[in-house]
Amino acid sequence: MLSSGSSPLTVERESMWRLLMVAGAVWLAIGWTMLRLEPSSVAAVAGPVVLFGALCEVARALAGTRTWWLNAGLAAVFTVTAGLLMTLPFWSFVAAAALVGWFLMVRGVVDIAVGVMARGSDRVWSLLVLVGVLQTGLGFFAASPFSRTARLVMVVLGALGVLRAVAELVTALRLREMAGPRRDVLRLPPESSAGLEGYAAGVSDVEDAPRWRARHRARPGGSTVAAGVAGGRSDGGFPDRAVRTTADLDAFLAEAGVTGSRAAAVPEGVELAPEAR
């Protein structure tokens, strides 16, 4: 699972999972720290948190994914939000909570959209959607009139750190899982490799086998097979024996007085067996 539109099959840098692993650990530390701090200046604390979220989006944009433009756009939006929080320290915690809620709602909606789009290619897409729903709900709560105290805003920041830690760590583990098979994508297990080699050898033998052609072809003035039988010689093949047997049977039927098309179907120039005369 890669949030913000990334897919494990499109990531080009194998070291990306390490960076996301570090980011997840930092987010987890942020979530724990927010719950332990005294809410003296909510805006001064929320500014660096949102700025770190913008830096994570920059790292995703530089990872070579197909949706780098989406990560770059989120990085720009979050940078402006963090700048407002840090440059206007006189804002009340209500305004700071509204900006944090904006960050959470945007991030959650993007995660939901990307998770739904990746449902056919990523088996953990439902986890991404769940994280997005929780982030959206948390952002709605932070921006609503219910968040009236600084302590609630700090709890929201702590929950933000935990949710982003889950998203980043799961993404890092998925990238690490996909990094190995991408290098050995053409390698098969020994049993499958042996079976594939045997199948290829059989196909090659069939294609290289000589093409059997008919030994007797019709010629003007009579059949080659009939001429060979009339001369008292036979190649010993099944067609020769079949033609001679048929001719003998037709001769017996004609001698017995049985009329029909088969009795008159003795090839011209065919010498019958002595007992058939």
From TrEMBL:
The keyword DNA-binding does not apply. Keywords: Membrane, Transmembrane, Transmembrane helix. It comes from the Bacteria. The chain crosses the membrane at residues 16-35, 41-62, 69-88, 94-117, 124-146, 152-173. This is DUF308 domain-containing protein. The lineage of its organism: Bacteria, Bacillati, Actinomycetota, Actinomycetes, Micromonosporales.
